[in-house]
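A reminder from the course coordinator: this example appears on the midterm review sheet, so study it carefully.

Given structure:
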């Protein structure tokens, strides 16, 4: 029966790439995608937690990655930013109501909250939070200092004149076998010998 399906499929194939070839490549792509999810993605994400822990110990937010003295790219620990947030709902709601910025559900209008938080400033001596435009004290807010790790990291490939070159540097080193000693624990990531290559 599968032969009949294959025969029918071949008869219906458009000019160009045979449908059976497209299907085979599609199956390979699925297998590679599953392999990435199961094997490669955990390796890609492995630096995240140690980088965040290192930041908490050293306060160094970046780690440059090099091979043979050439920069490949860098990881950066993502940090929270200083911000203001509502700390006392009742006090802030009374303030919003006084300004006519209360919705029927008796909560400050989101646009008003966003605008007030964006204009909020803090007196460094007294800690009082006030509106930077009007100078008016804003009740019910607190200042939340930033600089804490968010739990995520960002990877950036090294660039030269705006063009990413770090990936090429790393892949060239990989093909030369420069990473083999680091990949012994993950043999599935070791480069395979090319057909016809001598051992």
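Designed residues:
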């Amino acid at each position: 029966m599968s032969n009949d399906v294959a025969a029918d499929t071949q008869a219906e194939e458009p000019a160009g790439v045979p449908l059976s070839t497209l299907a085979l490549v599609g199956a390979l792509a699925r297998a590679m995608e599953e392999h990435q999810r199961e094997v490669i993605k955990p390796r890609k994400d492995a630096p995240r937690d140690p980088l965040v822990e290192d930041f908490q110990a050293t306060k160094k937010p970046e780690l440059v990655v090099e091979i043979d003295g050439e920069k490949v790219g860098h990881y950066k620990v993502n940090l929270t930013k200083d911000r203001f947030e509502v700390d006392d709902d009742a006090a802030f709601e009374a303030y919003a109501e006084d300004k006519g910025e209360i919705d029927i559900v008796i909560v400050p209008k989101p646009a008003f909250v966003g605008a007030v938080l964006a204009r909020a400033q803090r007196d460094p001596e007294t800690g009082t939070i006030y509106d930077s435009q009007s100078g008016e004290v804003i009740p019910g807010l607190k200042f939340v200092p930033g600089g804490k790790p968010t739990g995520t990291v960002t990877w950036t490939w090294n660039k030269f004149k705006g063009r990413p070159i770090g990936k090429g540097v790393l892949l060239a080193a990989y093909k030369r076998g420069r990473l083999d000693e680091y990949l012994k624990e993950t043999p599935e990531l070791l480069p395979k010998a090319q057909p016809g290559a001598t051992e």
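Residues 83-144 form one domain. Confidence is low (pLDDT under 50) at residues 1-14, 193-199.
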